[in-house]
């Protein structure tokens, strides 16, 4: 991916020197929830709230944080990708007669407190609609490469683009409508809506990639394969199979590997918001 000459975003908040810890009540229920959520990529903030309700207090320690050269480069990369999503979605919203509100991206280490509650790095990157911010511990990228088998800088960019896709959904009122239905549906029914929400975020990541490459020629040979591989490696079916040896489709919250690849590809090929209507699709 051609990124080094790109613009850097000013919407980066660095909290890597802030160390948080939290003790759980009820014999480690919070830890169990973290383990469950860690199976998925692009966390639903409601899970964090559930975990937050089972905990007592958060301790905060400010430390002197000295990142490695490799981590500095990763942080620089994240800033460029975020800036590119700002440029892309700013243009798309403007062409549609709207105005794009740029999200902040928070870098943290270990654990973080958001408006959606307390979260640990094991949960992976997430978007919190309550404060309209994306959160990421850069160590996730090592896990993406070694544990999930999805190396490459464009795979890393896809991670950010997916979370920014959730921000776009929030601005459009889509995610709010879905979360309002949580108490009106069975868990299996709500899971189906969650899958459609996540697949739409994958499609929106593809929309970003198409527009960004057309405007700024960011893609190099192999980049698309990296993103498609990343989407495949974090499908619910693959993660469940790895974690427990079998698959339970009714419990899917993010979609299968094939579905995630398919919807990212749809966004990439069409470059249009209208093509990402996963909620109106008869089949996913």
Q: Termini distance?
A: 29 Å
Spatial shape: globular
- Mean pLDDT score, rounded? 87
Q: List the quaternary state of the chains.
A: single chain
Q: What's the helical proportion of residues?
A: 40-55%
The radius of gyration is 18 Å
Q: Which regions contain 5 or more consecutive residues with pLDDT less than 50? A: 25-56
Please count the helical segments. 10
Q: Give the topology string: H per helix, E per strand.
A: EEHHEHEEEEEHHHHHHH
Lateral arrangement of strands in the main beta sheet: 1-4-8-7
Largest sheet: 4 strands, mixed
Strand proportion, as a percent range, falls in 5-15%
- Count of beta strands: 8
Count of discrete domains: 1
Structural class: alpha/beta
């Amino acid at each position: 991916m051609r990124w080094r000459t790109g613009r850097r975003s000013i919407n980066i908040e660095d909290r890597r020197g802030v160390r948080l810890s939290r003790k759980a009540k009820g014999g480690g229920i919070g830890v169990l929830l973290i383990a469950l959520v860690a199976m998925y990529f692009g966390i639903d903030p409601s899970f964090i709230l559930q975990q937050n309700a089972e905990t007592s207090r958060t301790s905060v320690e400010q430390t002197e944080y000295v990142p490695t050269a490799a981590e500095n480069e990763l942080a620089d990369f994240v800033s460029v990708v975020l800036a590119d999503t700002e440029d892309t979605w700013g243009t798309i919203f403007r062409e549609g007669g709207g105005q794009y509100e740029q999200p902040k991206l928070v870098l943290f280490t270990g654990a973080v407190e958001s408006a959606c509650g307390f979260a640990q790095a094991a949960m992976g990157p997430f978007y919190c609609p309550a404060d309209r911010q994306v959160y990421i511990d850069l160590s996730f990228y090592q896990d993406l490469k070694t544990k999930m088998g999805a190396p490459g800088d464009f795979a890393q960019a896809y991670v950010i683009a997916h979370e920014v896709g959730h921000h776009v959904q929030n601005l459009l009122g889509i995610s709010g409508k879905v979360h309002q239905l949580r108490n009106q549906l069975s868990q299996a029914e709500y899971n189906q809506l969650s899958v459609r929400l996540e697949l739409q975020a994958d499609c929106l990541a593809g929309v970003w990639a198409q527009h960004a490459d057309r405007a700024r020629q960011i893609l190099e040979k192999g980049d698309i394969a990296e993103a498609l591989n990343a989407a495949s490696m974090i499908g619910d079916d693959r993660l469940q199979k790895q974690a427990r040896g079998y698959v339970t489709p009714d419990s899917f919250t993010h979609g299968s590997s094939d579905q995630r690849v398919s919807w990212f590809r749809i966004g990439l090929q069409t470059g249009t918001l209208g093509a990402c209507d996963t909620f109106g699709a008869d089949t996913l």
